Amino acid sequence: MSVHHESEPRIYRCGKIACGVITHATCALFTGFITALARPGNKAILLFNPHSSPVSKLKHKAKGRLHWLLQCLCAFCALLGLFVIFFNKNLNDKPHFVSWHGLLGLVTVAIVVCQSLAGLPLLWPRLVKGWSLGKLKRYHATSGLLTHLLGSFSVCLGLYSSWFTGSVSGFVWYLSLLCPITSALTVMSQVTNAYMARKRTQF
């Protein structure tokens, strides 16, 4: 892995670091901007970013446990948000899950919970016998990436809702749209590059 980093042009490495830092900052701002759209799951994935991880000095095992804790927080926030929305709809006598954002959001919440549970065998490999740790990591990373993309798309759809467009407009709306898109692209790059680099070292 270190050989791979050394062979990269310096400007490319600096670009990766800058993208990671910007993503951390925009996610933090986005979380502060609207709590309902908080993305602790995104922060959980970025813990493994080789260029901009806030806990880069920790061992991989410690990162894994911290990742799982943040992912559990993500699942909790998602379930809490779902409950609040469900309660609010009942309170105002409005129909449930009639928009694409609502339907996709419900599916995403269910998948996030499943993805969090699917991470348990990586913490305790004895739970799954007959599977190599490498294969489990690959499947977990791939499904995690797809889950993150689904969540990002759901957030983007939510930005088009009547409530959000009525509350936010102009430059701030475009900035809000940029946040999940930037986040999704950064995570996609991180996951694909990590496994492409591993494949290169294997051959």
Automatic annotation (TrEMBL):
It comes from Danionella cerebrum. CDD domains: Cyt_b561_CYB561D2_like (cd08761). Its EC number is 7.2.1.3. SMART domains: B561. This is ascorbate ferrireductase (transmembrane). It is a multi-pass membrane protein. Keywords: Electron transport, Heme, Iron, Membrane, Metal-binding, Transmembrane, Transmembrane helix, Transport. It is found in: Membrane. GO terms for cellular component: endoplasmic reticulum; membrane. PANTHER family: OS05G0565100 PROTEIN, TRANSMEMBRANE REDUCTASE CYB561D2. One of its GO terms (molecular function) is transmembrane monodehydroascorbate reductase activity. Its cofactor is heme b. The keyword Oxidoreductase does not apply. The chain crosses the membrane at residues 66-87, 99-124, 145-165, 171-191. Residues 1-198 form the Cytochrome b561 domain.
